[in-house]
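User: Please run a holo structure prediction.
Assistant: Happy to. Please share the sequence and the ligand.
User: Here you go; the ligand is NAP.
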Amino acid sequence: MVRTAPAQVPRRRVIDMCLQEKIVIITGAGRGIGEACARLCLSEGARVALISRTTQEVEAAARRLDPAGENTLALTGDVGDEQAVADLFNRVAERWSGLDGLVNCAAIFRQDEFSRMPLEHWNEVLRVNLTGTFLTCREAFRRLTTGGAIVNISSLSGVPGVEKFPGFAAYNVSKYGVLGLTEILAVEGQPRGIRVNCVSPGAVDTAMLKQAAPDLPPVMRPEEVAETVVFLLSGRAGAINGANIILSGSPRPRAGK
Ligand SMILES: NC(=O)c1ccc[n+]([C@@H]2O[C@H](COP(=O)([O-])OP(=O)(O)OC[C@H]3O[C@@H](n4cnc5c(N)ncnc54)[C@H](OP(=O)(O)O)[C@@H]3O)[C@@H](O)[C@H]2O)c1
C-alpha cells in the first residue's frame, strides 16, 4: 500500500492584519492588559494611542512596543477627569485624523471591609472605573462618525452570580456598571455603526492581581485577553454587538516562574 504524505496546509493566522490603518485609543495601557492590547493592535497594523496617568510608564511601554514611535502616541491623563479626556482625544486627533476603536482598560481597586469603607474610596473607584469609561465612550461616540468599535474591560467581579471576594464592593459595583453601560451603548451605537462589547476576565497575571489578590493563582496571561479584545475590535466581529465575553481561563504559573 502506498502511503501518501498528508497535504501541507499552509499555516494561517486566525487574525491577519485585521486592524490595518485603524486608529485605536487604549486607556490603562502603561502595563498589564492594556499594554498587551496595544502590542497586539500594533502587530495587526493599527496606530495606537496609549493612555495612563504615569508618564514614565506609558512612555516606556510605547517605546518597548514601537521604538521608532511611528505608530504609537503615549499620552498622560486621568480618564475620570472630563476635561482631561477631551484633551486626550484632541491630542490623538492632532496626530492622526479619524478614530476607529477604543479599549477601556484603565481601572483601580481599593480593598476595604465594607463597614469601614471610606466614602472617598467608593467615590474614587467609581470615578475612575465607571465614570472614566462613560467619559471615554462619550468622547468616542462624538468622534466615531463613520462607525467603529469599543471594547470595555469589566471582570468576573462584574458578572452576576459569579463568586465574589470580600473587600471589593466598590470595584465589583463599578464593573457591574461597565457591563450595564456596554449594553445600553450597544443599543445606542447600533444605528451609527458603533459596536460596543465587553470582556470579563478572571484572574489575569498583572500588577493589579498581584496587589489585589497575591494568593490567587492567575488563570490567564494579559496576551490571552488581548486576543479577544482585538477580535472584537476587528471587522471579523462585525456581527457582535452588546456581548459580554467571559474569559474563565485555566490555572497556570505566574510569569517569570
Ligand atoms: N488583572 C486581573 O486579574 C483582572 C481581572 C479582571 C479584570 N481586570 C481588568 O482589566 C483591566 C486592566 O487591568 P490590569 O490587571 O492590566 O491592571 P494594571 O496592571 O493595574 O493596569 C492598569 C492600568 O490603568 C492605568 N490607570 C489606572 N487609573 C487610571 C486613570 N485614572 N486614568 C488613566 N489610566 C489609569 C494604570 O496606570 P496609572 O496607574 O499610571 O494610571 C495602568 O496602566 C482593568 O479594567 C481591570 O479591572 C483585571
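The mean pLDDT is 94.
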